[in-house]
C-alpha cells in the first residue's frame, strides 16, 4: 500500500491490479494463513504498528515536500517507480521488524 500512490501515478489503470492484490491478500489471510491470525490481530492492535503507519505517511509527505523545496518534483515515470520501490522496501522492512518483535512478545506470554 505504501507504493500504491506512485504505481497509480505511473499507470492509472493499475488500480485494478491493486484491488486484485488486496482481495488475494484477504483470501490468503482467511484461509492459508489462518493460524497466524492471533499474531496479525496483535500486530494490528499494537501502538507500534500505528506509529509505523503514521511514520510511513510522514515519510511519503516529507519526501515530496523535500523534493519540492529543492525544485525537483517527482513527475516522471522513473521517479514514481523509484519512490514506489523505496516505499515498498521501507514498508516491508519496518513491518518485518515489527512482526519479529511481536512474535517474541507472544512467545514470551
Automatic annotation (TrEMBL):
Q: Which UniProt keywords apply?
A: Membrane, Transmembrane, Transmembrane helix
Q: Indicate the transmembrane segments per the record.
A: 14-33, 53-72, 78-97
Q: Which domain of life is it from?
A: Bacteria
Protein's name in the database: Uncharacterized protein
Origin species: Actinacidiphila epipremni
- Give the classification, highest ranks: Bacteria, Bacillati, Actinomycetota, Actinomycetes, Kitasatosporales
Amino acid at each position: 500500500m505504501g507504493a500504491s500512490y506512485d504505481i497509480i501515478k505511473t499507470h492509472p489503470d493499475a488500480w485494478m491490479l491493486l484491488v486484485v492484490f488486496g482481495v488475494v491478500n484477504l483470501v490468503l489471510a482467511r484461509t492459508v494463513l489462518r493460524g497466524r491470525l492471533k499474531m496479525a490481530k496483535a500486530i494490528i492492535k499494537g501502538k507500534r504498528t500505528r506509529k509505523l503507519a503514521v511514520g510511513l505517511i510522514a515519510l511519503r509527505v516529507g519526501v515530496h515536500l523535500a523534493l519540492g523545496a529543492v525544485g525537483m518534483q517527482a513527475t516522471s515515470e522513473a521517479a514514481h517507480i523509484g519512490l514506489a520501490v523505496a516505499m515498498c522496501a521501507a514498508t516491508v522492512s519496518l513491518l518485518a521488524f515489527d512482526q519479529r518483535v511481536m512474535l517474541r512478545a507472544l512467545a514470551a506470554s
